[in-house]
């Protein structure tokens, strides 16, 4: 689906029409790819924000192309760039930074935004988000549609199970203990309510990275050329995930679908779920019960990966288009606009200043669950990102699936994944 955001119509006098025609002829035109298929109110809000920007900047016209999922968006952007017709800017997954650099299709923001004020802006975002936005001393992505996984729980189910409805599990042992009390079965022994649900489809590495971080291990280095998939602590984390189903019986066996997890939570099929803070607005609007939001449970430490999308500026555009793109990104990530985006979608406002706006303060006073993801940033790490990222994550996801379905032991699956990753990444060291 394609939507062109029109600039404001000037007053219908002859002089104004003449000026309007001249302005339109000289307007800087930007093509903007946006991953609309991320759920929530993203499309509506991005359209409102973009229209507002164009009303305030009649010399810029933005053609926003709804590009589908994140995977669709990066694929379409790269195809367009290879064909010599790239967008000027796009929101693409932060973990695709190395791919975009290797394809030589993006430019660093520092190369365009290099004034003292610009440098202050580049330093205004949460450091945890910038880990997936910078490499080699340069900033290639600006955090916008960013998130972390968090734990949601059904307070009514907790109370029914004799648990404190205001207390989420603080660590791995408690998640098992709470989960065992929360499992419900019918008279035939069939489970009607599971204790916890951790999705393992789509991008299972992301939620699993919560477990590895909590177990004190990082999956890849910051240069994007070395993984640690077969580290004993990664094996231990995967064994824990498998044990939730096979040993402790608090989670459904087999592959658990990402997309159906919120619905399962709403319908009482699970009392706890791990999913993105990007689902926060969805849960608030649709959960038929009182719910809580908490940081992911700890083991050796607290921890979770960041996630979501960054703004990127494409190389094959004019200087005027690059400057207009930076100006638009600066405007839409400014505190008031970032606050509006966060409140509408549940994504984490990417700078501390956004949380200090009057609008955001009123929002979190009414809905304190929104603070959890921000507070978890203190413990967050970069999402798994490497060169040849899609190949590497596919290898890792396949290893996770092999262990979850019992095809291989966690140790065997991760050893194989590391060997494959080494063969691919050796050329980048």
TrEMBL record:
Signal peptide span: 1-27
Localisation: Periplasm
Keyword presence, Zinc: no
Keywords: Periplasm, Signal
SUPFAM superfamilies (alphabetical): Periplasmic binding protein-like II
Cellular component terms per the entry's GO annotation: periplasmic space
Keyword Signal: yes
Pfam family, one: SBP_bac_8
Family, as annotated: Belongs to the bacterial solute-binding protein 1 family.
Official protein name in the record: ABC transporter substrate-binding protein
Species annotation: Pseudovibrio exalbescens
């Amino acid at each position: 689906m394609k939507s062109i955001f029109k600039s404001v119509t000037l007053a219908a006098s002859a002089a104004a029409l003449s000026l309007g025609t001249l302005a339109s002829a000289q307007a800087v035109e930007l093509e903007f790819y946006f991953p609309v298929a991320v759920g929530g109110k993203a499309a509506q809000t991005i359209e409102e924000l973009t229209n507002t920007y164009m009303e305030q900047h009649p010399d810029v016209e933005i053609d926003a192309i709804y590009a589908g999922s994140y995977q669709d968006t990066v694929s379409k952007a790269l195809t367009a760039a290879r064909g010599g017709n790239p967008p000027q800017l796009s929101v693409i997954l932060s973990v695709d930074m190395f791919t975009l650099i290797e394809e030589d299709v993006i430019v660093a923001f520092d190369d365009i935004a290099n004034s003292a004020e610009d440098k202050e802006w580049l330093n205004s975002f949460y450091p945890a988000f910038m880990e997936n936005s910078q490499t080699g001393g340069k900033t290639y992505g600006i955090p916008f549609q960013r998130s972390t996984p968090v734990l949601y729980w059904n307070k009514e189910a907790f109370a029914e199970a004799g648990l404190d409805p205001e207390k989420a599990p603080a660590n791995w042992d408690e998640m098992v203990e709470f989960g065992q009390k929360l499992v419900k079965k019918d008279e035939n022994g069939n489970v009607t309510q599971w204790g916890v649900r951790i999705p393992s489809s789509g991008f299972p590495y992301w939620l699993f990275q919560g477990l590895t971080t909590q177990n004190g291990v990082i999956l890849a280095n910051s240069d994007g050329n070395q993984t640690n998939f077969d580290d004993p602590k990664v094996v231990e984390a995967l064994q824990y995930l498998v044990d939730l189903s096979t040993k402790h019986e608090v989670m459904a066996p087999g592959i658990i679908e990402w997309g159906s997890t919120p619905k399962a939570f709403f319908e009482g099929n699970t009392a706890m779920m791990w999913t993105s803070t990007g689902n926060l607005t969805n849960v608030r609007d649709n959960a038929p019960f009182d719910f809580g939001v908490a940081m992911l449970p700890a083991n050796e430490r607290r921890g979770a990966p960041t996630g979501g999308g960054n703004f990127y500026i494409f190389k094959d555009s004019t200087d005027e288009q690059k400057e207009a793109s930076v100006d638009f990104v600066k405007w839409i990530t400014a505190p008031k606009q970032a606050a509006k985006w966060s409140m509408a979608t549940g994504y984490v406002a990417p700078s501390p200043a956004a949380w200090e706006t009057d609008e955001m303060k009123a929002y979190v006073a009414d809905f304190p669950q929104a603070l959890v993801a921000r507070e978890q940033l203190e413990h967050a790490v970069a999402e798994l990102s490497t060169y040849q990222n899609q190949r590497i994550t596919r290898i890792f996801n396949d290893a996770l699936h092999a262990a979850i379905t019992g095809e291989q032991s966690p140790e065997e699956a991760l050893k194989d994944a590391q060997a494959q990753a080494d063969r691919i990444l050796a050329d980048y060291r």
